[in-house]
């Protein structure tokens, strides 16, 4: 399993068939801590179809890695190289720009440099090798300046080397034949990019650097410690050397580094890159944990799911102590509304959360005759844990959750939702809701973008793929409004959602939801909303926590007024998120237009009075 650096001779004789790829993990660490060991194991597992080699300085012992590979069944090896390749950024750059290093691997078409601070999401290396690039890595960005959108700061070309795919012969050729010429096309791209970002000082540096490279390119690279990835993907193209590199919009689908969270939420959405580099430096720990779990579950549950044809619907009904809470009668209406559905393939998952008042026995006695009811009893600590248990017990392709005091308005409700989902292969369908109040039933303002305000969709009126719920996993993170988290994740993640323009559910106001979210829990609910909005959207990049709180339930409309509220939304640089927020705002203003027009007039009168007092 151990190899030592070879002499600088061509290791690939003419006519010798090359192997496709080797994964290289350079490190100066003789032994890894638990976190890095877990990363190496994960990456090796994801890339198990390729040769893998850890590169160590010759002063280190390979024994820890050899034992690690043997313990975990990893077909890896260790190569010891000259110690002067490690110890500083300049030393690492020397390894990456040394033709002798690439000569070691000329038995391979490609090498994937995968540092220990890289995380692999999916093995799409065959696709990227077939794309024919000589070097591809995460796109580079200018430092932040003012309110310039981060995508405007993304360089048109150039890639990071910490997680990079390199054609071995091409890198060797560039190093052996480099000439400091000029590419007018690349220089034009660079000038337009810098001018568009008003980085005039960088333009002066660009021309100065080109002049210095023309005089002594090797000396210039060494003197100013130009990183090896910048040499291949910026310097070589600018100087007119032949090397195939992708544009940055293509590169970000291969790997990300700086601004990964923004790129994933705003651009990539449901599709992860092959991997990310610098996860410990550039990615918030909470978000990193979320996306690692999300894409792992998505690969297991969602990606391979076939298209819907005649799906089984599981209606999950969570109950607890119905007798003592006086809800047995309303539950009877709820379950009968499910039993009367005309859609044929329905199972009812009736889950009792370990009631202490005989509820479970009463339910079995009343409804045991129904052949499509699966009775379960399992203790839970919250309604959301109960919902998770119910989804876990469900066997259907699609999930509906019906509370004990709500009910389907029509026997065609599930048929309407299923028909719309199967026709479009959607991931979620939702219908209209009627609110049952003391004064009668009134329509609820159903509006999907309004879930960004913790409003807009009632979960009883939804039908969602079980694979989507498992992928997002909303019920295990302790969130107070877990169902709204689910809706926000579906909307912002790019899952396909369809609507049914008919009232499918009647929802009783003043039930369990009011107890969970309102009253003494109102403050915690708002804090929880801020937390998951920052995880699932880019809102935290543009607004402060206090401003995000004003979005919750449209509370800011009354607290700061419609004008300031709208201005706050317009600060959001993410175009899609801003458009959805404005759509939600327009929906609520349309519903309560007269009320808010009156509020604006009162504010203008108040400001006019203040101005009058000052001038007098």
Automatic annotation (TrEMBL):
The keyword Coiled coil does not apply. Keywords: Transferase. GO terms for molecular function: hexosyltransferase activity. Residues 314-441 form the Glycosyltransferase 2-like domain. It comes from the Bacteria. Residues 78-277 form the DUF5672 domain. This is Glycosyltransferase involved in cell wall biosynthesis. Pfam families: DUF5672, Glycos_transf_2. Gene3D superfamilies: Spore Coat Polysaccharide Biosynthesis Protein SpsA, Chain A. It comes from Azoarcus indigens.
């Amino acid at each position: 399993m151990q190899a030592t650096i070879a002499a600088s001779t061509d290791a690939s004789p003419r006519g010798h068939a090359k192997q496709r790829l080797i994964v290289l993990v350079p490190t100066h660490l003789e032994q890894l801590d638990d976190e890095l060991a877990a990363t190496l194991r994960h990456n090796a597992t994801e890339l198990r179809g390729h040769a893998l080699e850890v590169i160590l300085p010759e002063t280190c012992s390979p024994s820890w890695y050899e034992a690690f590979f043997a313990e975990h069944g990893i077909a890896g090896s260790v190569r010891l190289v000259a110690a002067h390749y490690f110890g500083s950024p300049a030393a690492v750059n020397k390894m990456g720009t040394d033709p002798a290093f690439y000569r070691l691997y000329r038995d391979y078409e490609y090498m994937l440099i995968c540092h220990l601070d890289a995380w692999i999401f999916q093995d799409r290396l065959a696709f990227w090798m077939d794309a024919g690039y000589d070097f591809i890595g995460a796109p580079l960005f200018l430092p932040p300046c003012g309110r310039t959108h981060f995508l405007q700061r993304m360089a048109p070309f150039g890639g990071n080397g910490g997680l990079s795919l390199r054609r071995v012969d091409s890198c060797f050729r560039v190093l052996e034949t480099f000439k400091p010429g000029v590419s007018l096309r690349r220089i034009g791209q660079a000038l337009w990019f810098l001018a568009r970002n008003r980085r005039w000082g960088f333009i002066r540096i660009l021309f100065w650097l080109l002049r210095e490279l023309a005089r002594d390119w090797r000396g210039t690279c060494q003197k100013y410690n130009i990183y090896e990835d910048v040499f291949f993907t910026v310097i070589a193209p600018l100087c007119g050397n032949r090397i195939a590199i992708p544009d940055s919009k293509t590169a970000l689908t291969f790997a990300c580094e700086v601004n990964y969270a923004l790129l994933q939420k705003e651009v990539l959405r449901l599709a992860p890159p092959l991997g990310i580099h610098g996860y410990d430096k550039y990615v918030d720990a909470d978000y990193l944990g979320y996306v690692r779990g999300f894409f792992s579950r998505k690969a297991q549950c969602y990606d391979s799911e076939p298209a819907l044809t005649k799906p089984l619907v599981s209606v999950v009904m969570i109950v607890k102590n119905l007798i003592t809470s006086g809800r047995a009668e309303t539950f009877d209406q709820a379950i009968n509304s499910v039993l009367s559905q005309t859609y044929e393939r329905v199972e009812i998952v009736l889950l009792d959360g370990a009631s202490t008042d005989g509820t479970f026995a009463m339910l079995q006695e009343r409804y045991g005759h129904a052949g499509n009811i699966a009775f379960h009893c399992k203790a839970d600590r919250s309604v959301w844990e109960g919902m998770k248990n119910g989804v876990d017990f469900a066997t259907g392709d699609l999930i509906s959750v019906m509370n004990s005091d709500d009910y389907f308005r029509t026997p065609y409700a599930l048929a309407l939702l299923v028909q719309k989902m199967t026709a479009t292969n959607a991931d979620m369908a939702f219908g209209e809701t009627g609110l049952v109040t003391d004064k009668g039933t009134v329509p609820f303002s159903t509006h999907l973008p309004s879930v960004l305000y913790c409003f807009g969709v009632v979960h009883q009126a939804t039908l969602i793929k079980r694979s989507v719920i498992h992928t997002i996993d909303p019920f295990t993170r302790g969130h107070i409004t877990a169902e709204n988290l689910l809706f926000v994740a579906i909307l912002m993640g790019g899952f396909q959602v369809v609507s049914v323009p008919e009232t499918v559910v009647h929802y009783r106001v003043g039930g369990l939801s009011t107890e969970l979210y309102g009253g003494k829990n109102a403050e915690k609910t708002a804090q929880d909303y801020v937390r998951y909005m920052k995880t699932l959207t880019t809102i935290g990049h543009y607004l402060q926590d206090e401003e995000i709180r004003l979005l919750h339930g449209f509370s800011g409309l009354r607290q700061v007024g419609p004008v300031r509220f709208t201005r706050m939304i317009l600060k959001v640089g993410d175009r899609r998120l801003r458009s959805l927020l404005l759509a939600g705002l327009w929906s609520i203003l349309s519903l309560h237009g007269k009320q808010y027009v009156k509020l604006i007039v009162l504010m203008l009168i108040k400001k006019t009075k203040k101005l009058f007092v000052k001038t007098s």
